[in-house]
Specification:
The complex is a heterodimer of chains A (112) and B (110).
Chain A: E1 4-6, E2 10-13, E3 19-25, E4 31-38, E5 42-49, E6 56-57, E7 64-70, E8 73-78, E9 87-94, E10 102-103, E11 107-111
Chain B: E1 3-5, E2 10-14, E3 19-21, E4 24-26, E5 32-38, E6 45-49, E7 60-61, E8 72-74, E9 83-90, E10 98-100, E11 104-109
Parallel strand pairs in B: 2-11
Antiparallel strand pairs in B: 1-4, 3-8, 5-6, 5-9, 7-8, 9-10, 9-11
The chains are: A mainly beta (112), B mainly beta (110).
Chain lengths: 112, 110
């Protein structure tokens, strides 16, 4: 059973804080993704990675960075959190040539 | 650039009625198309993929390259089909970015 685990279900942070969202998968997947999910906007891709230390910008990378030091772990970093980054963040993983992405349970981040 | 459009944010149908969730895409090549579903308080999960040409939970979707569409259909909706549905596209290339539409919230009324 594929498991994608996000470290927190809920987070509340203050404006200007540095925020780390962690995601771990246990299926040896090459691809990992970070999305934010907002009502009416759907899922928007922030960053993705297809190998250790490799990263590609998605559609909305501004204000975010990522880190992939190990194959199983993909971290999303908000360098200086702002209120417009309040959202649900979803992590996903898949095999490089696979046709299915597996999602984590999501992290609801509130920036106050 | 790849883009997925779902024109309906909300869709309500009565139980037993047919349902169609629309999806159009833009991609300069041969894409892979998917439908993902998120039931209340559950994770987003794959419903079906065009390459499999399968029927899952009574849902089917046909890729129409001429109209660049991948509409999801079910002849008789059930209350348990109520969920958020996302159409997704994956392009070719080593990175294989997976792009989602804005989603359609389907409500099946009793």
């Amino acid at each position: 059973d594929v498991k994608v685990t996000q470290s927190s279900r809920y987070l509340v942070k203050r404006t200007g804080e540095k925020v780390f969202l962690e995601c771990v998968q246990d299926m040896d997947h090459e691809n990992m993704f970070w999305y934010r999910q907002d009502p009416g906007l759907g899922l928007r891709l922030i960053y993705f990675s297809y190998d250790v230390k490799m990263k590609e910008k998605g559609d909305i990378p501004e204000g975010y960075s990522v880190s992939r030091e190990k194959k199983e772990r993909f971290s999303l970093i908000l360098e200086s959190a702002s209120t417009n980054q309040t959202s649900m963040y979803l992590c996903a993983s898949s095999f490089l040539g696979g046709t299915e992405a597996f999602f984590g349970q999501g992290t609801r981040l509130t920036v106050v | 650039a790849q883009r997925v459009t779902q024109p309906e944010k909300l869709l309500s149908v009565f139980k037993g009625a047919p349902v169609e969730l629309k999806c159009n895409y833009s991609y300069s090549g041969s894409p892979e198309l998917f439908w993902y579903v998120q039931y209340s308080r559950q994770r987003l999960q794959l419903l079906l993929r065009h390459i499999s040409r399968e029927s899952i939970k009574g849902f089917t979707a046909d890729l129409n390259k001429g109209e660049t569409s991948f509409h999801l259909k079910k002849p008789f909706a059930q209350e348990e089909d109520s969920a958020m549905y996302y159409c997704a596209l994956r392009g070719i290339g080593s990175a294989r970015q997976l792009t989602f539409g804005s989603g359609t919230q389907l409500t099946v009324l009793p």
